[in-house]
Amino acid sequence: MTPDLSREGLVALLRLEDFSPVYEEADRVRREAVGDAVHIRALLEFSNHCRRKCAYCGLRAPRRDLPRYRMTPEEILSSVRAAWAVGYRTIVLQSGEDPWYTPALLGEIVREIKKATGMAVTLGCGELSREAYAALRQAGADRYLLKHETADEDLYQSLHPDGTLRERVHCLRTLKALGYETGSGFMVGLPGQTLDVLAKDLLLLGDIPCDMAGIGPFLPHPETPLKGAAPGSAELTRRCVALARLLLPRANLPATTALTVRGDNGRVFSGGANVVMRKITPNAYKRQYEIYPAQLPDTDIPAQRALLEDQIRSLGRVPL
Ligand code: 5AD
User: Fold this and answer.
1) Per-residue model confidence as pLDDT tens digits over 216-264
2) Beta-bridge partner residues of 183
3) Which atom of ligand 1 lies at the shortest distance from residue 219's CA?
4) What is the pLDDT of residues 12-49, one digit of tens each?
């Protein structure tokens, strides 16, 4: 099949009664462009402080009931070493927007990780200045994740009182220009979102163009203004991942944790995805990093890596 990937074409595809030919095409394109590997990344959530007030997020600044934590550089390095020891070769360092970690301090942490392990370092620390992004790149950071969340300006504005879609996209273009492998992404099922908005989300990924894209269902958090909203659909999320594969054949597309929460048991891997992240955040902090409600198992870095490798092999794929 040769799918029509224009804005109208994408809407028509998302609306299909039977999407299975598109999943098959996405699987074929994935195999041809990036092969059978499923890349396993270690995810360390090193601070849950955040200065922003995003309407959907459980870490939003106005939440006074949430205990906040910051991991020290030593704690961070010790978690990273434990991941390295069991085979992880990429560390994703994620946090709220927390200026306590200055670009100089973050850069120092990146340098230490590089020196100790040589791992690929991905940062997800929100919007920073061009100078800060440049300094972190200089320190050795390889990749940066900054989801655009929604490509509709009005919806973006209603969810993000402290920023604009323009600024977000500007950051993404800056990251690209600085030589980062750049990741964006969006949520599926945000209140007020239409299929046309999802088509715009998908086209924006291609326009950047992104090297990585995380697409996950919106999950209402009870301590946020969106607590009463309905959760996003897992099926619609998988459809978006498949279309992202068609638009960006060589991209790294994770099966997002939020999709797992919605009950996906690996199905997304047969429809375009080729990356998965495992939280290695210490138990003392893990449950305080509650972006959306989820029942999280205790962290056991070696056991969870081994289990995930088995699950990937049982899908006929190659864990890396
Ligand atoms: N439901 C689903 N995803 C969420 N995120 C934040 N809050 C929620 C929520 N309530 C996603 C955003 C963010 C990423 C870290 O988690 O896409 O970029």
Assistant:
1) 999 999 999 999 999 999 999 999 999 999 999 999 999 998 898 787 7
2) 145, 212
3) 1
4) 999 999 999 999 999 999 999 999 999 999 999 999 99
Cis, peptide link before residue 254, omega less than 30° from 0: no
Q: Which domain holds residue 269?
A: 7-319
Q: Residue 1 domain-assigned?
A: no
Q: Which ligand 1 atom is the nearest neighbour of the CA of 149?
A: 17
Parallel, antiparallel, or unpaired: how do β-strands 318-319 and 275-279 relate? unpaired
**Cα(260) to centroid(ligand 1), Å:** 13
Torsion region of 46: left, alpha or beta (phi above 0 gives left; psi -120 to 50 gives alpha): alpha
Compute the distance from residue 2 Cα to the ligand 1 centre, in Å. 32
Name every residue whose Cβ is closer than 8 Å to that of residue 290 and which is 6 or more positions away in sequence.
58, 59, 66, 221
Domain membership of residue 91 (yes or no) is: yes
**32-67: burial string, b at 16+ Cβ within 10 Å, e else:** eebeeebbbbbbbbbbbbbebbbbbbbbbbebeebe
Total domains in the chain come to 1
| CA 313 – CA 220 distance, rounded (Å) | 33
Nearest atom in ligand 1 to the alpha carbon of residue 221 is: 10
Tokens for 143, please give them.
């990749």
Residue 39: inside a domain: yes
Which residue of 187, 201, 279 sits with most ligand 1 atoms within 8 Å of its CB, as the best mutation to test the pocket? 187
